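Let's practice the habit of predicting before peeking. Look at the sequence and jot down your guess about where helices and strands might fall. Then scroll down.
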Amino acid sequence: MAERSEVTPAGEGAPQGAAAREYLKYTFYRVAQSWRLQPREARAAQKRSFSAELSALCAEYRTRLYSLVGLRGDCDFMTWTIADRAQDLQGVARRVVSTELGAHLETPYSYLAMRKRSVYLGGHEHAGQEGAGTPTAPAGASFLFVYPFTKKREWYALPFEERQKVMREHFRVGHKYPKITIHTGYSFGIDDYEFILAFEGHDPGEFLDLVMELRTTEASRYTAVETPIFTCMATEPDALVEALGG
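Done guessing? Here is the structure:
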């Protein structure tokens, strides 16, 4: 798996520099039925203006768009924003909901995380490696799999050397899937989960195989919560709004 740091716990190791602490924000939106009850002409105009606003946001911020129409029943699209400041995350959210179509949007899921260097890398490091805590651009793959995650408290009670040994096995499995790129986000104290993982890839079947194999590792025994899981398809503004129908 490309540039893989795996599912890595936080809370240990040296403090990180401010430049390494990018925010990772995943916001899932659902279009309320009230929007579809409007006249077709009104919806068409709102779709055009909403697409224009999304295009502007993607140009001004590090924001990527994903459609979930037909892939999941409780949300229609997702914005993934990478930012150095929390104010930028608020700016994106404000502009989305300030549109006419945005007035009909609900937010069933929203996840906030930050980058941080993995304490389990040890000597397993290379240039541009995910998990080093440095800013990393999205790979631009066709799919993004968003994966909130929390470990059992028993995991943190294990000696560090034992945890590192367990994670080395996890690394080995990940390296068998080099076309999958992981973005590990830490959410300790700033959101409900401990981690928000995002896996980029072009083949959902390959990600399915990876997750199945990871279930056989020792680390899997220490999983407390790892749902919901989202399969998101990369898209552009015009295609995103057209997928909403109307």
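How did you do? The CA atoms of residues 138 and 200 lie 8 Å apart.
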